[in-house]
Amino acid sequence: MAAALLCTLVKGAIGVVLITYVWIIALKFLKLKPRNIIILFISVIIISFIILFNIDIKSSSDVHMAGLIEPILNSHNIPFGMGLGNGGNYYAIQSGISAWFVTHTGAESFFGVLLYQLGYPGVLLFLGFFIGAVVTMLKYSTEHSGELRGKYIIASGILFSLLIASLLQESTFGINFSGILLIIIGIYFSRIQNESENSV
C-alpha cells in the first residue's frame, strides 16, 4: 500500500506514507512519547507555513493554510456550521469560483471544510473518533510486545497520518483514497485482534 501511495505522486498520499514512517520510527525504535511526536509534527507544520507566508512566492500552500486557519478564526460566527455542501473545493467548482476565493469555507483543508459545514459538533465527533482510535491502538501496543506491538503502532501511525493530512488536504477523506485505506485498516485490526487472542 505504501509503495502504491508513493507511486501516485500525490502530495497528500506521499505525506501520509512519510508521516506514518516517521511515527513508526519515533515510537518503535526511538521510543519517543506520542505527545512529543504530535508536538513536533504540529510545530513543523506551523513553522513551515509561517516561512512560506513570509516569502514572496505564491503557491498552493497559501490556500491550504488559509483553508485551515480562516474557518477556525471565524467559527464563533457559525458554531453549528453552514450545512453540508456549502463550502470547500467542490462548492467552489460547482459555483465556478477559484479555491483562492473560498478559503473562508475551508477550501483545500478537510478540517476547515468540516468546521465550516458542520461546526463544532462535527469537529468534535471527527476528532473524538480519530484521537480515540489512535489512543486505543497505542494502548494495545503497550500491552503487547514483538510483532504484535509493531502492528498496533503501524495501525495507529496510519490513522494519525490521516488526521494530520486532513488539516491541509481536503481530498484526504475521499472514498477513492482513505475510504479504501480505512477499510484495509479495519481488516488489518481484526486480524491483529485475532492474533492477539490466539497468542494469549
Topology of helices and strands:
Elements (H helix, E strand, L loop, with lengths): L1 H6 L3 H19 L4 H21 L5 H15 L13 H8 L14 H34 L2 H23 L6 H25 L1
Key terms for this structure?
200 residues
What do you see in this structure?
This protein is mainly alpha-helical. The protein has 8 helices and no strands. Helix 4 packs across helix 6. The longest helix has 34 residues, at 110-143. The protein is globular. The mean pLDDT is 83.
- The rounded Rg comes to 18 Å
Poorly predicted runs: none
Helical content (DSSP H or I, runs of 4+): over 70%
Shape: globular
Oligomer state of the chains in this structure: single chain
What's the helix-strand series? HHHHHHHH
Helices, by number, come to: 8
In short:
This protein is mainly α. Helices cover 76% and strands 0% of the residues.
